[in-house]
Structures are given as structure tokens and as C-alpha cells.
Backbone:
């Protein structure tokens, strides 16, 4: 039980990091995509 709880908490931490990095990277990706269409 303890090992499973540790596993799930680690998974939550990884998901939190992904959730924090994704929105930060998205604007840059959107700006790069927009840069292709903008003169």
C-alpha cells in the first residue's frame, strides 16, 4: 500500500510539472506558428 501511494504521488508530481510547462511552452509555439503567417 505504501509503495503504491508513493507511486501515485510521484505520478501526480510529474503531471503537475507537465501542466506547468505545457502552458508556458504553448504561447511560444503559437507565436512561432503565427510568425509563419504574419509578414
Residues:
Amino acid at each position: 500500500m505504501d509503495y503504491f501511494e508513493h507511486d501515485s504521488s510521484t505520478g501526480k508530481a510529474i503531471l503537475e510539472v507537465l501542466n506547468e510547462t505545457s502552458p508556458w511552452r504553448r504561447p511560444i509555439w503559437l507565436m512561432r506558428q503565427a510568425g509563419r503567417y504574419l509578414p
